[in-house]
Amino acid sequence: MYAFSQAVQSDELGGIAFDSLPERICVLDRDGSIVLTNQTWSQSTRENVASLSRCGPGVNYLRVCRTATGPFSERAFEAAIGIETVLRGAAPQFTLDYACPSPSRKAWFRLIARPLRRPHSGAVILHSEITSQVLLAEKLRRTQAHYGVLLENPVDAATVLAADGNIRYQSPASEGVLGIRPEELVGHPIFEFVHP
């Protein structure tokens, strides 16, 4: 009786943990039909004005991905192919980053498909939001492009110094302005080139 009680408590705890995760998670059978979803999956379905009859238990998720239409659906077919490779055992994991805006904001997600452990066959599909990482990467690219143009501008000489005053970078324009090739300056203290 005690072992049975522990098993029931363990199953309940597993269900609570599954529903507590912030990622959108579903479990597929070997044919690609949804057999289980967590609370976050169901909530996001309602928020995106969809119905669980279109993406809940019993629905073939591969068919949904293959037939997706509309804005931002172009990666859905790729998702279906990747998930199928995991279901067939041809890949240990499939990962895909995609844009998925909701009615209220732009968002990006990472889909990860992994096979269920034996003796079951099927896959676990996890969608985790990566919007903050994508926006940060875009900001970094813009910043690098901006400063790259400034540093490579042939009219301006630019110098990047280390904390100890040694030159870490010297722009190509320094040869025209200072008469010294940039590679001759890098690694030397800036004070060697300043008049006393």
What gyration radius follows from the Cα positions, in whole Å? 27 Å
Q: Uncertain regions: pLDDT < 50 for 5+ in a row?
A: 1-8
Biggest β-sheet, characterized? 5 strands, antiparallel
Principal-axis shape equals elongated
What average pLDDT do the residues reach? 82
Topology order in helix (H) and strand (E) letters:
HEEHHHHEEEHEEHH
Sheet/helix structural class: alpha+beta
What percent strand?
15-25%
Q: How many helices?
A: 8
Number of strands: 7
In short:
It contains 8 helices and 7 strands; from the N terminus they run αββααααβββαββαα. By secondary structure, it is an alpha+beta fold. It is elongated.
Keywords summarizing the entry:
196 residues, alpha+beta, 7 strands, disordered N terminus
Descriptive report:
It is a single chain. With 196 residues, the protein is an alpha+beta fold. It contains 8 helices and 7 strands. The strands form 2 sheets. A 5-stranded antiparallel β-sheet has the order 2-1-5-4-3, sandwiched between helices. Strands 6-7 form a two-stranded antiparallel ribbon. The chain is elongated and about 80 Å long. The chain starts with a helix and ends in an 11-residue tail after the last helix. Mean pLDDT is 82; it is low at 1-8.
